[in-house]
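Working notes for the structural subgroup meeting. M.R. asked for a predicted model of this chain before we commit to crystallization trials. I am recording the input and output together here so anyone reviewing the notebook later can reproduce the run.

Input as submitted:
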Amino acid sequence: MIKLKLKPEGVKKYLELPLVNTKFAGGSSIDTCSIQGFTTKDLLKMIIDLSTIIITAIFIVAIFGPIAYLIWKGQHRTHQSISILRTIEKEKSIKCTVYDSWNDKTIGIDSLNKKLVFVDIQSIPVNWKLLDLSRVSSCKIIDTGEIIQLMLGNDFGKESQFDVLSFFNTQTDDPLERGFHKELAKKWAQLIDKNIIKHLKTPRRAA
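Returned structure, recorded in token form:
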């Protein structure tokens, strides 16, 4: 229990704080101690300071709490997309020696078996692709400003076919990260280009 004795303004007051069996080096102990020199004005200042600390703490939690949650959520989803990539590797007996993961997406390449895996967990059910690079003849970047995509073409058959891999979309991604996604798309366009057989159509002979 704290006993508070107050006297008129300007006169010192005394706080008696009971301490039970407080022992010091040497075996001595005390049961109570007194703190002198506090005025009513001092106490009010202490209360105000304490209130300021509490309000500041609440403000910090309100500002940085959501940010910390978003960071945690992003890392959790990144781990989830990587986990799906690893599952695909086991099921398809491949091994992605190079991969990148960002936001809700993961992309990996198995250069030995010429396979490309792309995982996007934004949609439900999860959207993933396993592409055979031996059947891909071209890869180019599509950049409209609002979206950044890789378009993989296959013109080995009678009709050309295309697979589109989305790297950035202003509707789902932070616009400030556009430059990062553009560089990531360039990196993977080069990796894919090194692992495909470019098909050059034979020009028609003049009649």
